[in-house]
Amino acid sequence: MRRSRKGAGETPRYRCRSFGAILLLLFLLPLWGGCRGEGRGRNPKEIVVGLEATPGTLDPRFIVDAHADRIEKIVYDGLVRRDPKGAFIPGLAERWEALSPTRYRFHLRRGVHFHDGTPFSAADVKATYESILDPRTQSPRISAFEKIEHIEVIDPHTVEIVLEEPFAPILTSLVVGIMPAHATKGKGGPPIGTGPFIFEGEARGQWLRFRANRDYWGGSPAIERVTFKIIPDDAARILELEKGRIDLLQNNVP
Length: 254
What we know:
By secondary structure, the chain is of the alpha+beta class. It contains 5 helices and 13 strands. The protein has helices spanning about 20-30, 65-75, 120-135, 170-175, 235-240; strands at about 1-5, 15, 45-50, 80, 90, 95-100, 105-110, 150-155, 160-165, 195-205, 205-210, 225-230, 250. A hairpin with a 5-residue loop joins strand 4 (about 80) and strand 5.
């Protein structure tokens, strides 16, 4: 992450090569907005991120492009996450253990809700993974789950994943965002996750907007709203950053 050059007293602008850096800013810069000069006409707790292309979809079963993958991380949670060093850490699963080389048990967080108010449970994990595995869904992510033989709901807060054979990288697949079971029955609806930001709306090809999830299990974000502004031209994105019309850039920056 690099800070753009600005004069004294002006707003700090950032160019981020890692989306993890953007997530860090969303949670750890509660006073950043106060650095902005007056008269900008923008909420001091709103961040605008420049993206080079429109995400193809925000349904985690179908995400294949990097632009959507970045946004998935603020809308959805997987059973597990990766820390900055790449190690697996708890997500919607507080802890897990391997009962055998082919059976994993996950203990889920309690009191978590999806953005539509639906309580999160083991049934949602089962529905999400089974939807990806269903050939009728035509999920491009099916290959990452092919070693799963079946998913067992032990109780609302415990789920077991049984593999066809030992498969050490299985946790890599489980970073995929979990959807509410009812949302897996269709396609094309608004994204509904348990993540730190809630989808508000979009102007296709222009912008997407998200508001903070104040009930997020991981703590309320410091930023109230995030807008992803689609600016295909590299030079135009840099210019928007320098003029203070956007606050962050992701990738493709000199």
